[in-house]
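step 3/5: co-fold with pyridoxal-5'-phosphate
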Amino acid sequence: MNFQNKNKYPDSWSSFMSESLNDLKAKGLYRKLRVIDNSVSTRVTVDNRTIVLFSSNDYLGLANDTRMKEASASAALSWGTGSGASRLISGNTSQYTMLEEAVAGFKKSESALVFSSGYSANAGVISSLAGEGDLILSDALNHASIIDACKLTKAKVLAYPHCDTDFIINYLDNSPIHKKVLVVTDGVFSMTGELAPIHKLYSICKQYDALLMIDDAHGTGVIGHEGRGSLDYCNMNDAGIVQVGTFSKAIGGLGGFVTGSNLLIDYIINNARSLIYSTALPPSVLASNLEGIRIAQKDTSLRKKLFDLINQMRAGLTRLGFPVFHIPTPILPIVIGDVSETLLVSEYLWDKGFFVPPIRPPTVMPGESCLRISLSASHTKEEIESLLLAIEEYYKK
Ligand SMILES: Cc1ncc(COP(=O)(O)O)c(C=O)c1O
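step 4/5: write tokens
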């Protein structure tokens, strides 16, 4: 059999794929995978060069923390490498119980349920909650996993203008009656680092008998007391709010979760297809997630270091004339607008030894391409200063 044969697919399929890729290339939207040869937190080796990453969501630097690595290795040695089945068959070990108790405690919720990723948590939660005759109001800048999850339902889905609570009120006042209404938003927006108007959304939901769901992938471990996230930052508890989160960012691991009442979690266990039909996480991952939650809560020095770096970067960007949001988060976008210009700045920084990813449509709205700088407690003050200098040099050219 000749595996080199370029025409192994029917012509119609090969030309469909090539034309689509050529179209992306013409629009500057083509993407390819970079290979990282070696990783020591924020410094990686790519094509034999050392690059400082300003692109990772490992906000507390836990993905390379010795305590995390030891927890993971020790669980693999005692429990093995795979779970062998989905949670509802025989993959639900006592490690899950410990992790879910820790997450519920961390989020100050009655109960928690762990999924294989944040993507699959959103898919499972939203598709179980909403169905035919329901309405989902979803912020226009919500993460793609929320957008995809909404598509799994038969509900009417409306993307409301970003953070526009007046639009929601107006829509609810004038729209036909729906069976149930779900309002869903990122807590901290993944591309802009802004905080959603949580208080306002919560009071709208109360007034219109709607359910509020907050995806706090980027707030968890970072903002709020002990890193509890956006709700805590807003001095709110989870009263009647569905919270989704992920271990893959500040917690330094992998997996997603939802927290809420016992009733909600019981309902989701019985309905979420991404939980029911997917193999349980491996023991090493469950163990490092548990350790990550413990460290994120108790080791306040990491968050203190992260916020010192955030303040340094915000001051530097302000000095260079770039606007920064009122609430400090480790996500600092530099909005450039034009796709080609965004690519040029990112490539210039890459040549100088920094990876600051260009974020283009469809991840952001057309005309709003940006560089997304993300910071980690593992960065040094010198790295921040060098990046700021490189940005300044680009704009002085
Ligand atoms: C807001 C938000 N939700 C969900 C996800 C998906 O999480 P995960 O990477 O754990 O699948 C991400 C990031 O990838 C995200 O930014």
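step 5/5: annotate
The mean pLDDT is 95.
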